[in-house]
Amino acid sequence: MNVAIYxxxxxxxxxxxxxxxxxxxxxxxxxxxxxxxxxxxxxMIIGERLHSPLELTLSQIVIGILAGTMGSLLFSYLGxxxxxxxxxxxxxxxxxxxxxxxxxxxxxAYSGSILGLISIIVSYFFKSYGMELPLNIDIVSLFSLVxxxxxxxxxxxxxxxxxxxxxxxxxxxxKIIGGFALKRYWALPVAIFIMYAGKENMTGGLxxxxxxxxxxxxxxxxxxxxxxxxxxxxxxxxVLGYSGITFTKNKTMKAxxxxxxxxxxxxxxxxxxxxxxxxxxxxxxxxxxxxxxHEIMLYIQKKLEEKSNPKYVSDDEGIMVLEVAxxxxxxxxxxxxxDKLILINGKEIASEASIYTMLKESLNQVIVKVKxxxxxxxxxxxxxxxxxxxGLVLVPRFIPKEEQIIKFDNEKxxxxxxxxxxxxxN
Length: 426
Fold this sequence. Notes:
The chain is an alpha+beta fold. It has helices at residues 3-16, 18-46, 53-78, 90-101, 108-128, 139-160, 222-225, 251-273, 280-307, 329-333, 352-361, 410-425; strands spanning 81-83, 166-172, 175-196, 207-208, 230-246, 312-313, 319-324, 340-344, 347-348, 365-371, 377-383, 392-394. The strands form 2 sheets. Strands 1, 2, 3, 4, 5 and 6 form a 6-stranded mixed beta sheet that branches. Strands 7, 8, 9, 10, 11 and 12 form a 6-stranded antiparallel beta sheet that branches. A hairpin with a 5-residue loop joins strand 10 and strand 11. The longest helix is centred in the N-terminal third of the chain and has 29 residues, at 18-46.
């Protein structure tokens, strides 16, 4: 059997083995609770949920398993492997600790830099005194692993990063602009090669691998070690996360741009990781690039966002549509996010509130002139029954006066969230 079969078996083991399955279930519960909050926020702003918490959670788990399988195959064919005392499991632990310290640091780029730097320092100190290394991580393999994980993350962001987006508003140049906040996590079962000194160290559930002559693609000093060692595959669970805010793109394009940026960073990091073979200077270069390069990527994306023109802005021409609730009267009529409402029954729209007034005056049925994002104009019949919600999230044309703004603290906001959760149960 070839490397791919061994890899797929190890990934399957991560899904069906009871102790690892518990980890997956635990992550699923965390995701579900987070998705419940997202659904509540969507219902508060849009009037109904775009996706149910269960749907959001299942997509995170299922797509994560597929991504973990693809990533494990890449690890295998590239030949990313670690010695048994590498401490590679700390990569995942440090990420969690960084998340507790500051959520934005929940990324393998930062935990990889910390683990790599610790490994270099420990290695230098213990070798100076001729002592056995307690932590011996392969820097090339470490940052190749982190680079591939970012490539996988970029693909996940492109495919699934736009789900669960929440409409948001801010002000710029005395105008209200609309946008979206995106936040997603995925649980990945990954299989990683570990080199053991002998068969006596092998434990139940591990798979001893016979590799082909051409393997690995990333050839290094570890190839010579394989002659006297046993190669096994160890399954782990990793969590990849993405968050972003945009006021200049729709949520799909934001996910696409972010995903491409993450993929480019992943490819560059995988390439830079190979410098670790040149010695300690190359290893330090990989350590620094992992975190600094990630920060540079985020900085570039932030600057591009700031320099781009806002997409969702109401003006003298009309009222901008930020989001449309699925199966709502507006959705069924054909109104989409990014459309601009120009006229209602041939009359200009004074404000977003006047739309509802015109509907009542016309017995809840009107003709709306809509301008789409391409600049095309079309007349759309829009009707609703009684007090049925239109299902539109509109961008206000004017900034409300201070006395019109309802202020509340976090405790009051929590009360509102709890109330909506209670309503959803009924």
